[in-house]
Amino acid sequence: MGNMWGLLNFIALFGYGCVDLPKLLWNNANPDERLAQCHIKASQIDTRKTEARAELAKLMNKAVSALRILPADHPMEAYLNIVVGKCPVDFDLEAATATLGASEARAAKWTVDDVTYSRVSELHRDVKAAILSLARTQTEWQINAEVAFDMEDVLQNRVDSSRRFRSSWRPPAPPVCGHILESAEWYWKVRFRKAMYRASSLLTALLSGVFVWSEIMIFANPRLSAFAYVFVEGMSWWAIQVAAFSCVGYMAACAYYTLFRLKLFNFVQVHFAQQTDPYSLLFVATLVARIAAPLCYNFLSLINAKQKTYFHHLMGSMDAVPLLGSWVNAFVPCLVVVFVTFTAFNLWSRLLSKLPFGQHVAADPDSEELLGEGQRLLKDVKRRLAQWPASPNTPPLSPVSPTSKRYTRTAPGRPHLKVTSFEPVGLSRSVSVNTVSDGADGEAAGAGVTEESSLASTGKRLFSVVKSKMSAVKSSGGYLALPRLHLGFT
């Protein structure tokens, strides 16, 4: 029964991948289309990044508000210090929380009785999830910006008569053999890459058609399977190994391609650059292991292997499924036609649009508006990238966030609470928190606060201290303690 369930999962994943993989290769061959997709994606990523920053600011505001009302030596103070210490040192909390609405600001208020262990642990969990979401959007933005700039360079180098690839955002090639590298890059990206993508797309489309036909023939007539005529008696050992590796490799590529692109309502999703959460990794690893054996069984059915192989001897027989019979192993592969049809004609989105919970999933945004917004964002990033040597404190591959006044929390009869600086002390982070009494007109609060250095510059100093300490601890064979956050009122 487990093998039958794994076979059904494999057929579903393979049915999507054998259609979408050739389509992806064909679309990647056109730099104009890829550039337009990057512009649309840039606008969508920027929206998600803004939402992630607002969510993190709201949660950190709640943590600081709870820490503010606690009396001295409260048992929850140490746990709240851990929560506040999760805030990235390069995160502009003041600018982000300045955009919070009145309702969100009221929701951040706590009473002493509200600060319980369960609520602080929930806040800690939400803060970690928000930090991971923000890191994902930042990584996705950087990857998308690099692809967009590379496509722009490809379009500009089409008319270059010198046949040397000139990049508008990367550092120049080294003087030694630099012209050879630029020429090789020009021939690959301008001349050969498009043809290779198109040839790969046609080849994978042909293989997908052969595999779909053979899957249907498992139930209709196994002798009509295309692979039954490839694997015949009298083949040499090397020919069998090469043919089996190619067939099983393509089946696994289509199935795992779908698995790595799987999105289940933002609960399970694989991200680039080590940004995948543990639950998604475990879920994907479970499916990878679950469909491995059924994939091999399905391949043996495709080649119509009548005699028992060593795989059958090792894994056992899959001829009989309890309560269902052996015909299920031949019928389930025919369902690949359903998944191929739904993917080829985009019927999944149309089906979701008819469901109550699918109206937001299948919504089609205004592509022209997103395209223009993405072009503006990437153009601004490229302009700052050209000024990168002159302004090293500004990350060039991140979207510009609007500047705002320094963040202050005011309440009648209560002091201002302001995180003014991060100062590295050994292996610990020290946060200086200033309190200024409210005046009748609020002018005394502004006069008592001095401007400090930005979180970005102090964060760099902190990282340099921690890095030096890590090197010293590693050389001595010890361990490095986690950074602690000290809050003090002056």
Your description of this structure?
The chain is mainly alpha-helical. The protein has 16 helices and 5 strands. The protein has a 3-stranded mixed sheet. The chain has a two-stranded antiparallel ribbon with strand order 1-2. The longest helix has about 45 residues.
Major pleated sheet: 3 strands, mixed
Oligomer: single chain
The strands making up the biggest β-sheet line up spatially as 3-4-5
Tell me the number of strands: 5
Q: In angstroms, what is the radius of gyration?
A: 29 Å
From the spread of the alpha carbons, the general shape counts as globular
- Average pLDDT, to the nearest integer? 77
Proportion of helical residues:
55-70%
Low-confidence stretches: 358-365, 400-456, 473-490
SSE arrangement, N to C: HHHHHHHHEEHHHHHHEEHHE
Continuous helix count: 16
Strand content: under 5%
Structural class: mainly alpha
Distance between the termini: 68 Å
List keywords for this structure.
490 residues; 5 strands; 16 helices; two-stranded antiparallel sheet; single chain; 60% helix; three-stranded mixed beta sheet; mainly alpha; disordered C terminus
Condensed summary:
With 490 residues, the chain is mainly alpha-helical.
Detail the topology: elements first, then pairings.
Blueprint: H1 2-28, H2 31-69, H3 77-85, H4 93-97, H5 102-107, H6 117-156, H7 178-220, H8 237-260, E1 263-264, E2 268-269, H9 278-302, H10 310-315, H11 327-331, H12 336-344, H13 347-354, H14 367-386, E3 418-425, E4 428-434, H15 443-447, H16 455-476, E5 485-489
Parallel strand pairs: 4-5
Antiparallel strand pairs: 1-2, 3-4
